[in-house]
From TrEMBL, chain A:
Species: Candidatus Komeilibacteria bacterium CG10_big_fil_rev_8_21_14_0_10_41_13
The protein, known as: Uncharacterized protein
Entry keyword set: Membrane, Transmembrane, Transmembrane helix
Transmembrane spans: 32-56, 76-95, 107-127
UniProtKB/TrEMBL annotation, chain B:
GO molecular function, one term: DNA binding
The protein, known as: RNA polymerase subunit sigma
A Pfam cross-reference name: Sigma70_r2
Gene3D superfamilies according to UniProt: 1.10.1740.10, Winged helix-like DNA-binding domain superfamily/Winged helix DNA-binding domain (1.10.10.10)
Domain RNA polymerase sigma-70 region, residue spans: 30-97
InterPro entries per the UniProt record, alphabetical: RNA_pol_sigma-70-like, RNA_pol_sigma-70_dom, RNA_pol_sigma70_r2, RNA_pol_sigma70_r4_t2, RNA_pol_sigma_r2, RNA_pol_sigma_r3/r4-like, WH-like_DNA-bd_sf
Length: 257, 197
């Protein structure tokens, strides 16, 4: 049984403590802030996705069939995958607190956030923002350079130092006619490369260029090239092989000319 | 004079909210309209003493008053006020957790009939199934199941309203109610309080 003067007591308390309804703008502001933080989380998700796409396209995963699965596992960009997962969860949390956000299921919100992040990621990637961001992170965040860039770099150097798996990279130091040339590997070892059966990604073979060669080892320091690709400039390149959709790149940013 | 005094009775909740925002004294009409319902809800959902329940109810109404401007017209006012009440009860329960064993559903005679009709059990209910036994069984269910059963069968809320009160997707509410019913049926059968499903 409620006491008789219940409502009177409440009104008295409201008046005596000068409680007033919070103004509308406070609720609106709260909602705007939630929308803003939701947008920011999706943007960060988009950046993470674009860097994952960038790394996926440039780290030689398409070659891992020829290589071993271990290389693939070692070069997964865990850092960005963890960031993406964290921000997708944050996006869900922000969305959940928006007006009416609770009406949508967790799976739906997470899926929509992932799709939005992928779309944004593709947009960032195609507008060249990813590379600039990545370089910015590398310059400004020492831990990022050590934990992500240098680690991937080591993995990729290792890839192009794997003649037994059919991957060899290095600098052309001597061209001996049309059939062979000498390559200095990234470990300074000299290799005699047979190019009789090789397809070049483009013309421009000359002494001093850096190559990444796919082929097979045929002797102690002899390698038969099947495909020859160029490291183009200090940054990433895209290599196309005749008649193929195959694009093989990797992280060549530590190549010193 | 009487007509003027009873004017508020014909007003909708939304209209009363607008009045209360303009004039504190008019908040009385909303209190009058919801105090009994909310007190019952507190007592059904918690094992707070009468005194504690009334104190909590007072806190709920003050919170409602402070947040009147955040009331969203797309919701039913009753869902909105129940949501505030629900959150306050849970928050109070957490504060006093050391004192209370668990949220405990209080007896209510209408429950057996409501549940029986929902479960299609009218013909099958054993005479032994007293409301007291039923409450005991419901109290053995998980908290999330108890909450939805109370709102569905005690407070007579539909799925959409429960979704707005508990701030869960309607599909999740439906799934919770189904699971709660299954768990309850299982317990009823186990205790031989119903003959058949």
């Amino acid at each position: 049984m409620i006491e008789e003067n219940f409502s009177k007591n409440i009104l008295q308390k409201i008046k005596s403590t000068a409680i007033t309804p919070k103004p509308k703008w406070q609720f609106r502001l709260k909602n705007y802030i939630l929308w803003l933080s939701f947008t920011i989380t999706i943007l960060v998700g988009g950046i993470s996705t674009s860097i994952i796409i960038y790394m996926a396209r440039h780290n030689g995963w398409l070659l891992f069939g020829r290589f071993n699965g271990f290389f693939f596992i070692k070069t997964i960009p865990y850092f960005w995958l963890i960031i993406l997962a964290l921000f997708i969860l944050l996006a869900y949390y922000n969305f959940r607190n928006l007006e009416g956000g609770y009406k949508y299921k967790f799976e739906l919100v997470v899926l929509a956030s992932i799709v939005l992040s992928i779309i944004l990621g593709l947009v960032f990637y195609n507008f060249g923002l990813t590379e600039r961001l990545e370089r910015g992170f590398e310059r400004k965040l020492p831990f990022y350079k050590e934990a992500v860039v240098d680690r991937l770099d080591r993995q990729h150097r290792q890839l192009w130092l794997s003649p037994d798996y059919g991957f060899l990279g290095g600098k052309v130091i001597l061209i001996e006619g049309h059939e062979s040339f000498t390559l200095e590997g990234f470990d300074r070892r000299l290799w005699s490369i047979s190019q009789k059966k090789a397809e070049f990604s483009r013309p421009g073979m000359e002494e001093g260029v850096f190559l990444k060669i796919i082929g097979r080892r045929i002797g102690e320091d002899q390698f038969e090239a099947e495909r020859i690709n160029f490291f183009e400039g200090p940054w990433l390149e895209e290599l196309r092989f005749p008649g193929g959709m195959m694009k093989e790149n990797f992280y060549p940013r530590r190549i010193n000319r | 004079m009487t007509n003027k005094n009873n004017d508020h009775l014909s007003k909708t909740d939304q209209e009363l909210v607008a009045l209360a925002i303009k004039r504190t004294d008019d908040f009385k009409y909303l209190i009058d309209r919801y105090e009994a319902k909310l007190l019952r809800y507190i007592r059904r959902l918690s094992n707070f003493s009468s005194e504690d329940s009334e104190d909590l109810l007072q806190e709920i109404f003050i919170k409602v008053y402070q947040n009147l401007n955040s009331f969203d017209d797309s919701l039913k006012f009753s869902s909105w006020i129940y949501r505030i009440a629900h959150n306050q009860i849970i928050s109070q329960y957490r504060k006093t957790k050391s004192k209370c064993k668990d949220l405990e559903i209080k007896a209510d005679e209408t429950l057996v009939n409501n549940l029986a009709s929902e479960f299609d059990l009218k013909e099958m209910i054993d005479q032994k199934l007293t409301s007291e036994k039923l409450f005991k069984l419901i109290n053995n269910l998980d908290k999330k199941y108890k909450e939805v059963l109370i709102l569905r069968f005690f407070e007579d809320k539909d799925y959409r309203e429960i979704s707005d009160i508990l701030q869960k997707p309607a599909g999740t509410v439906a799934a919770l109610i189904n699971r709660a019913k299954k768990q309850l049926k299982h317990l009823l059968l186990k205790k031989r309080l119903i003959f058949n499903i």
